[in-house]
Amino acid sequence: MNIVIAPDSNRAFYQRVVEAISKAFSISPDQATRDYVISPQTVLIGVPLKPNQSTYQLNPRNNVGTGYPTDNRLDQNDYFAIQSIGIKLGRATYDSGTGQLSQFGNYPKLSFPDPNYFNGNPGSGLDEWQCLQALVNGKISLLVGSQQIIPQDSLQKLFYNPWATYTSSPVALPQYNGGSDPATRGLYNLPMNFILDLNQDNNINIVLANDADMAVIDGSVTSAGAASTYRNMMWLELEGIVIKNMGGNRQGAMAC
User: Fold this and answer.
1) DSSP H helical segments within 51-207, as ranges?
2) Is residue 25, in this structure, part of any structural domain at all?
């Protein structure tokens, strides 16, 4: 009797990426893996949330737009195959005197707007976690050059509630649960995977829900209604595989 052991989903995804690159550039799979660094990669693109801003344009490439210390972006000559995508919410320390943000690396990143963490109460109007629902109920799209890869789609699937709430105990932080499958870490596995050429314009647009109260979406008030010393950040997280120094040889995006 023959026994066939199927590869796990991550290994199968890696093999699809190698095959797609091989086909696109008319090289063998062996040559693709021999000549290029093909490696798992997590891309993080951060942006501060603001009460007067309903649209955010993000780019996965280094040196495009404003970068933040916990970002992890890609080089211009890279290819990147997107396996899964998610939204993470966190904070940075805010200096009211200078308006500057700092200490990005000292705050946890949560996979949903937990009311026990995002607990600002302005006294009038909606609470902080409720204002963050404008993001949860927003939309996302991806444009590569003039080619629409992801038309406007709901952001709800990019958030994940692990059914555990935030506490002040580090061992109880819910966003660190999970394993090798991106879905167990709060990411949405795409049914079709795209390979982006970082030499192209890769514009990811996030649009918050219309007719929403966003007065304290930035985390500018504490649970007691006082001015806070932090501000809320959003990170778009892309999980996938990077192919180093291969970009610019093909127009647009590929599927795998």
Assistant:
1) 128-131, 133-136
2) no
246 falls within a domain: no
Within a domain: residue 146? yes
Give the range of the structural domain holding residue 235, as residue numbers without chain letter: 40-69+84-191+199-241
**Span 217-246, mean pLDDT?**
95
Q: What pLDDT, in 10s, does the model give residues 216-227?
A: 999 999 999 999
Any idea how long the chain is? 256
Asked whether residue 138 is domain-assigned, the answer is yes
Mean pLDDT computed over 179-184: 71
CB burial string 51-64: b at 16+ within 10 A, e below = eeebebebbbbeeb
Q: What is the CA radius of gyration of the chain?
A: 20
Q: Which residues pair with 231 in a beta bridge?
A: 92
Long-range (24+ apart) CB contacts under 8 A made by 119-123 are 119/222, 119/223, 120/216, 120/219, 120/220, 120/221, 120/222, 120/223, 120/228, 121/221, 121/222, 121/223, 121/224, 121/225, 122/215, 122/216, 122/221, 122/225, 123/225
Mean of the pLDDT values across residues 233-252? 81
Tell whether pTM > 0.85: yes
Q: How confident is residue 5, by pLDDT bands cut at 50, 70 and 90?
A: very low
Whose tokens are 């949330």? That residue is: 49
* CA-closest candidate to residue 118, choices 126, 130, 106: 130
The total domain count for the chain is: 1
Q: Is the pLDDT of residue 120 over 90?
A: yes
